[in-house]
């Protein structure tokens, strides 16, 4: 079957109403798995974090991870959901090679959190309320590696390898209600929702929400309803793993489905895979219904019945919402929307806030983190937050510059020393002898020596070409190893030339 002709999005929304739904899977940052004591560390050697329980071996029995349950409830509360007073796990039965038990322990008709909402702000300030159908707990599957072939997928591969380390890692799946009336902004709404959800969950400190590592994944459900017609058939694009890809997947499905319908075809209810390079989707398998999964209550786990007191205790732990926090910091620091957005995109907002809390002015704190330290992170190929320097260290360097004990150039050397593991800023200053030369007599002697070596420059200065003093400043800075105050050196040069 040939690929349908893609339809421009503006043309799509002129004749169809896109209906959007999003399912986001979030791996929880617990030390152990959902139903056993195996570690959850990312990147371990394949099949080294497994046991009879997460491998589904006969006779093994699961035990619920309390921290995972609390994390799930906190996510539900942050999404304005009701926490169910009673809930059970169920077995979701289907075969897939990376699921060792041939069923997934999940929640079906009794999820932990239901009926919530989140207000999503778009770029132009428009707010869209996204309803949350449910948030339920389950376990992750293992991971397949398909070797050979051109796509990295099972089709065309020579063989497949299975790593069960991820099998059993706690997941929470957050399912939106249908999001209608988004029109041509459906792709933007999808991206904004996932972005805001990621920020919210990260603020709860229950997941690292690293989409590049698979700890946050999005399934995009989309259907097109002809204007004035009945709701169309939806497709589900699975495991979209970046914010940009979420937007592109929605846009492509809108264009593709309209092309199919315009050609007289029918939309098939199926799963689809997003192709990162081309920005397109391709067919996967026909989508199962709930009956196909043959859900039944998990016989080896007791129901979960959170008390009202427990829910209240968890509600009290919810932090300030990230978008509210950003607005507050923006006001306190007096920065623009673009500047605060740049801080967020650079991963510097938390670091700048902590540096300010340690006593640094916000402007200097922002400058250090988004300029010099961001360059160092790029050079060292690490995330900004993973640099081996604390916000308190940066605040101390800023303090030393403000007091005149360091120049900006010396301050960078101090930061380099901290990054290289040489100690605190004060220890680096002492070990490297980096303090500014503040002894006036020493400075005067250095200036006089430089003037004596360049009499032609002295004559230029006396003749009114004060910009020529820069050459003498450079000579003094070189002689003092960059530890002189350049401003004071310039003042002394002009004073000495006038005195002579």
From TrEMBL:
Gene3D superfamilies: 1.10.10.410. InterPro entries: Asn/Gln-tRNA_amidoTrfase_suB/E, Asn/Gln-tRNA_Trfase_suB/E_cat, Asn/Gln_amidotransferase, Asn/Gln_tRNA_amidoTrase-B-like, GatB, GatB_Yqey_C_2, Gln_synth/guanido_kin_cat_dom. It comes from the Bacteria. It holds the Pfam family GatB_N. It catalyses: L-aspartyl-tRNA(Asn) + L-glutamine + ATP + H2O = L-asparaginyl-tRNA(Asn) + L-glutamate + ADP + phosphate + 2 H(+); L-glutamyl-tRNA(Gln) + L-glutamine + ATP + H2O = L-glutaminyl-tRNA(Gln) + L-glutamate + ADP + phosphate + H(+). It is an enzyme of class 6 (ligase). Belongs to the GatB/GatE family. GatB subfamily. This is Aspartyl/glutamyl-tRNA(Asn/Gln) amidotransferase subunit B.
């Amino acid at each position: 079957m040939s690929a349908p002709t893609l339809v421009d999005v503006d043309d799509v929304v002129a004749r169809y109403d896109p209906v959007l739904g999003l399912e986001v899977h979030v791996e929880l940052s617990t030390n152990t798995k959902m139903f056993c004591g195996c570690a959850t560390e990312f990147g371990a050697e394949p099949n080294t974090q497994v046991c009879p329980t997460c491998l589904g071996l006969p006779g093994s029995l699961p035990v619920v991870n309390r921290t995972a349950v609390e994390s799930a409830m906190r996510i539900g509360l942050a999404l304005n959901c009701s926490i169910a007073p009673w809930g059970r796990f169920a077995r979701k039965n289907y075969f897939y090679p990376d699921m060792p038990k041939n069923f997934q322990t999940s929640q079906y008709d009794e999820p932990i959190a239901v009926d919530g909402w989140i207000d999503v702000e778009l770029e132009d300030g428009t707010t869209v309320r996204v309803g949350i159908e449910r948030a339920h707990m389950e376990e992750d599957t293992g991971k397949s590696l398909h070797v050979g072939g051109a796509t990295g997928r099972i089709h065309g591969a020579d063989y497949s390898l299975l790593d069960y380390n991820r099998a059993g890692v706690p997941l929470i799946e957050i399912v939106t209600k249908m999001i209608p009336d988004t029109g041509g902004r459906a792709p933007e709404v999808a991206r904004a929702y996932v972005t805001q959800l990621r920020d919210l969950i990260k603020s709860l400190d229950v997941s690292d929400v690293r989409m590049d590592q698979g700890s946050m994944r999005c399934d995009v459900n989309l259907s097109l309803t002809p204007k004035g017609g009945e709701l169309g058939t939806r497709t589900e694009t699975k495991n979209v793993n970046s914010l940009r890809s979420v937007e592109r997947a929605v846009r492509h499905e809108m264009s593709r489905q309209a092309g199919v319908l315009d050609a007289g075809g029918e939309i098939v209810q199926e799963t689809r895979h997003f192709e990162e390079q081309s920005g397109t989707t391709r067919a996967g398998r026909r989508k199962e219904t709930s009956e196909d999964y043959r859900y039944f209550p998990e016989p080896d786990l007791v129901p979960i019945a959170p008390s009202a007191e427990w829910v209240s205790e968890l509600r009290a732990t919810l932090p300030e919402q990230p978008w509210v926090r950003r607005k507050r910091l923006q006001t306190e620091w007096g920065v623009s929307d673009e500047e605060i957005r740049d801080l967020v995109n650079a991963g510097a907002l938390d670091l700048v806030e902590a540096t300010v809390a340690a006593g640094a002015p916000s402007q200097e704190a922002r400058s250090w983190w988004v300029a010099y330290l961001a360059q160092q992170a790029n050079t060292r190929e690490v995330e900004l937050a993973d640099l081996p320097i604390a916000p308190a260290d940066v605040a101390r360097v800023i303090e030393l510059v403000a007091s005149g004990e360091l120049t900006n150039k010396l301050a960078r050397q101090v930061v380099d020393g901290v990054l290289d593991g040489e100690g605190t800023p004060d220890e680096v200053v002492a070990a490297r002898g980096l303090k500014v030369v503040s002894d006036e007599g020493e400075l005067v002697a250095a200036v006089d020596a430089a003037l004596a070596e360049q009499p032609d420059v002295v004559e230029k200065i006396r003749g009114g070409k004060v910009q020529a003093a820069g050459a003498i400043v450079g000579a003094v800075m070189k002689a003092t190893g960059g530890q002189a105050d350049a401003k004071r050196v310039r003042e002394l040069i002009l004073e000495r030339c006038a005195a002579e």
